[in-house]
TrEMBL record:
The gene is purB. Residues 24-327 form the Fumarate lyase N-terminal domain. Belongs to the lyase 1 family. Adenylosuccinate lyase subfamily. It holds the Pfam family Lyase_1. This is Adenylosuccinate lyase. Residues 348-468 form the Adenylosuccinate lyase PurB C-terminal domain.
Length: 480
């Protein structure tokens, strides 16, 4: 047995080696989420919320005697947020090692910068005098719930939604391009009424688009009301203030929806709602990935080889549908995480427990796997070409699918008084079920029905490739 003790320890290498695939192999595809859903992003939003709360308390003269801040002083405070960089991240981590409390570390980080403000703004600055208004009357969750709401809102609106919307439009574009290309459908895996490639892609684009619109309309709730949601400390400190009004104005100033009734935590119901919608998008996209994978296996789509790429380590002819397979796996992981988050975050023991604190640190992974899947599907679709010869050959091998329109026409003719139209379904069943028939047999059958001449000619001219109903029209009218 090999001596594993002699191996290099990857845990000690610099730069550090990622444990997870999102921060390692797939970093490039998900990197935009780091600005919104990483631990550093959480701390930046905490600083942002704390700074804006300090400004709000002084702006509105909420706390009697608090100095009104100048524009320069407000700019100095807001620069603490915009200037938060690698050095700031390291400093904050150092403070947290002492406090063993992440939000308290943020408070001290801001107070350090307020303490040195006279060096930048002059000795007469009012900032040191209002230093104790940092984190005033706040419980940690007042800061955290607002920070997470801003993080998720930013990630959804600036990263996930643009990627998802672009993919929907990509699928819709393919649907429009191929709206007239006939294909044999398969219900229960068996040959069925033909459709078009475009119409089937339009169904998926329409479904995905509905979920995008739901996510676009999401509400992001926030609260700032103290340790058990009663404004207890606020009223004790400044009984003259209208604290619910102050809270509401502040939450809405941040671009969030105010939640007036909470325990210590904001209830997170909005998160469960957003995650359910994103997970539903994921599941529909999973449906697209598996359908396209199947169409590739049937030869309906040809994959355009990437120069230099290897499909198989031993079979040089292969071009594997790896983009769609990768997407399937990542969509399943994303859905699992969103499902857990949605079910966990809506519950809390009495007025507070910390399960949400641990759970919410996985939001980035849930969105990351979804974003990676979207990226893979988008890239996979660009490497596809429709093989119309395969589609037409498949249709021409299944003339029995015309049993449906012909027996339906016989029913209509019988109702109109044409004689000899009895038992249309049974007669087509005898002709087609379990039998392979071609154009000659179908045309002979139609000519022997005794239908009016015009109806006979119309049905005799029908082929599997032309029996696509209103597929093209449906794409034009409903895929806006």
């Amino acid at each position: 047995m090999a001596n594993t003790d002699a191996r290099v320890s990857f845990a000690e290498l610099t730069p550090s080696i990622a444990l997870g695939a999102l921060d390692g192999r797939y970093r490039g595809a998900v990197a935009p989420l780091v600005d919104h859903l990483s631990e550093a992003a959480l701390n930046r939003e905490r600083i942002h919320v704390e700074v804006e709360w300090l400004i709000a308390l002084t702006d509105g003269q909420v706390v009697p005697g608090a100095a009104q801040l100048t524009d320069a002083e407000k700019a100095y405070l807001r620069a603490i947020v915009t200037d938060f960089d690698g050095a700031g991240i390291a400093e904050l981590a150092e403070i947290e090692r002492e406090t063993v409390h992440d939000v308290k570390a943020v408070e001290y980080y801001i107070k350090r910068r307020i303490a040195v403000a006279p060096e930048k703004l002059g000795a007469d600055t009012n900032l040191p005098a209002v230093s104790e208004l940092v984190h005033f009357c706040c419980t940690s969750e007042d800061i955290n719930n607002l920070s997470y709401a801003l993080m998720v809102k930013g990630a959804v609106e600036n990263v996930w939604l643009p990627a998802a919307s672009a993919l929907v439009e990509q699928v819709a574009g393919m649907a429009r391009e191929h709206k007239s290309v006939p294909m044999l459908s398969r219900t229960h895996g068996q040959p069925a009424t033909p459709s078009t490639i475009g119409k089937e892609l339009a169904v998926l684009a329409h479904r995905l688009g509905r979920q995008v619109r739901r996510v676009s309309g999401a509400e992001y709730l926030g609260k700032l009301n103290g340790a058990t949601g009663t404004f207890g400390a606020h009223v004790a400190a400044v009984p003259s203030a209208n604290w619910p009004a102050v809270s509401r104005e502040f939450v809405e100033h941040l671009g969030l929806t105010w939640n007036p009734l909470t325990t210590q935590i904001e209830s997170h119901d909005w998160q469960a709602e957003v995650y359910a919608d994103v997970a539903r998008f994921n599941r529909i996209l999973h449906n697209l990935a598996t359908d396209v994978w199947t169409y590739i296996s049937l030869g309906f789509f040809k994959q355009i080889p990437v120069p230099g790429a290897t499909g198989s380590s031993t079979m040089p002819h292969k071009v594997n549908p790896i983009r769609f397979e990768n997407a399937e796996a990542n969509l399943e992981i994303s859905c699992a995480l969103f499902d857990v988050l949605g079910s966990t975050l809506v519950t809390s023991r009495m007025q507070r427990d910390l399960t949400d604190s641990s759970s919410q640190r996985n939001i980035g992974s849930a969105f990351g796997h979804s974003l990676l899947a979207i990226d893979n599907v988008a890239k996979g679709l660009t490497r596809l070409a429709v093989d119309e010869n395969v589609l037409l050959a498949d249709l021409d091998s299944n003339w029995e699918v015309l049993g449906e329109p012909i027996q339906s026409a016989m029913r209509a003719a019988g109702v109109a008084g044409v004689p000899g139209m009895e038992n249309p379904y049974e007669r087509l069943k005898d002709l087609t079920r379990g039998h392979r028939i071609g154009s000659a047999e179908m045309i002979e059958f139609v000519h022997g029905l005794g239908l009016p001449a015009a109806e006979t000619e119309r049905l005799a001219a029908l082929t599997p490739a032309t029996y696509v109903g209103l597929a093209e029209q449906l794409v034009d009218e409903h895929l806006a």
